[in-house]
Fold this protein.
Amino acid sequence: MDKIKILIVEDESIIALNLKETLIELGYEPCGVSPNKCKALKILDKITPDLILMDIYLKGPTTGIEFANELKITLPDVPVIFLTANSELSTIKKASETFAYGYILKPYKKSNLHATIEVALSKAQDDNTKNKKLNAIENVNKTLMHKMNLTTEGKSRTVQLKYGYLFDKENEILYYGDEPVKLTSKEIKIIKLLCSSPGYNISQEQLEYAIWQDEPAGYGAFRSVLFRLRNKIHKDLITNQNNTGYKIELF
């Protein structure tokens, strides 16, 4: 079995050497050591690591946080763990905006380093699997849209939503990929109204009226229907807008 390849980006040579030796002891393969972005990019031209250990405060024009932000675009599947001697909340908060997979405070313990690496690798693998599945669903979704959009009428009847969903307004069917989602008549009424103004806020009163036109059943009944609906779809497809209503997320 191939060893996990880890790139070290650390400008303090003693710490970098110690990290390299520790990684070898833990059974990993240090695939390169770099003190800055420039030398790190030269290594990345030749090899793609499974994980990057990155010092937050690199010497030079580019900080570790800035470099990590760039790597989100060029190497989105490679997790980054930050190394820092600064435990201030403001620093950690700024670093968290890069969606790093962990933080290790210097001086570090071997057990903490090992645990942080393993958690990051596991989380990254799970995230990458979910992203690939979502991309596959969205590709199927596009194929379905192509089939349904052969005519002008077809184009006007579909609403492409986030997370691989598509709503056919004419037939009142919600698709996930090319599979219809099994919804009750009340749940379909919620989706239908939200898709009449996709991306915009719809008040709870309007949604209640769409379900119970003759006699609104009240907040409890509405919440019950909405709860069952949300259990059948992606949790963030329908969002609550500051308790003033709801909207469905467009692709």
